[in-house]
Amino acid sequence: MLRAIQRLMVVWTVWVGCSSAALGWGEPHKDITRAALGALTSGEREWLGPELEPLWNDYCLIPDRVFTDRANARYATLPSRPGEVYLKILHLPTEPLEYAEVLRHFLGQAVDAVKGGRKGDAARYLGTLCHLVEDYGSPSHVLPGDNQFQLLQQFLPPPAEHGDQLLHGLVENGRLEFTLEGYQPRFLGETVPEMAWRVQHRIHEAIVHARSVTLPVVEALYAKDTARVTEHQLRAARVDAEVVADLVHTVLAVGSGQVSAAEREGVASAGIGTFWPLEAPSLFYPQSTFFSAPEWGPVTHGYLRRDGKRQPLKLRVAGKDEAQVFGDGIAAGGRSSLSYWLPAGVFRWIEGTAGLHAEFGGAGVLEFRVLNGDAVLWERVVRGDEPAVEFRVPLSEVERIRLEVVGKGGDPRQQYGIWGGVRLVK
Ligand SMILES: [Zn+2]
After folding, report:
1. Less crowded by CB within 10 Å, the N or C end of the chain?
2. What is the Å distance from ligand 1's center to 138 Cα?
């Protein structure tokens, strides 16, 4: 009887611990991790050897099993949070700066374990990292503050036959058997701070992608169309697995000193035009950050919004007749502030082109500033009838870069400010 009560207590603790936060993909964690490991080189899989199978079959669930698998629970703890057994941050993203710290910790542990040949430790820390990436990119975890979908169900009420079932588990669970055939894992940085930074931005891509999956899955659930549920879940799982493959590959390559010259070259610089800045912590621009001129709306990436249409980002560049299109540019409007944290000591320069749109900005005047926090590193007033200005600013000791645009007179309806091709360079 006592045994039974104890067992019930354990079940209850686990249930309460998890339900208040997030259950995560469940079984699909295994499917996603296995697909990701399948994309590694044969050398990498051989290095993992006997740890390969438990990594996908067991260790990727360590953060969910901290109450039942006490032997491995320490691989999912943070020294900065002594005594905390279940860490919600391993399942749900919080502030980008906060979970960047978490990524740095576990990536550091995993790389050190690979360097030291401690394969068991390496695989377990990788398991925790796989779990984090997979949960963050799960279609059940991507609605800020509503991972049980109460708010969503107010917008999209279920049909009567759905009853009162919580959606979280239904949205993400099932069997998702797939491979990443043909996918070549990306290399995400030579040092732990750089890896944490690049992994975070890859995770952001997975989160935004998974958001496009959530509603189709819910609608398919309401329609009791199981095949369609799986089909959409697989879309999110694939992108999740790609990020997991990138992460595991990078840790193994750096830890074992197997970084190729091409991979090193591939991370010699980083375009940040598509990155989400700290002003958009939940990966959308809150209304409080909208600019008022030239049109009321958020910052956009890769295009600008004008009269309800998408327009390419064109800047006139000195010495060229044709305006240049910046596919990875940022439409910063007539007033905006965009901040990005930088990995310590990795990049030496920030460079790019700043100006007003070649066709729509002729009568606007804007000041462009590059700042380190509040300290101005570079600033220039640009008129719409002048060519855009190129900049290259040194970055030593800079931890947070800020790109600011401020109106300086002219026609407010033509303040189409653009940051073109902004890159960090080593
Ligand atoms: Zn989880």
Report:
1. N
2. 10
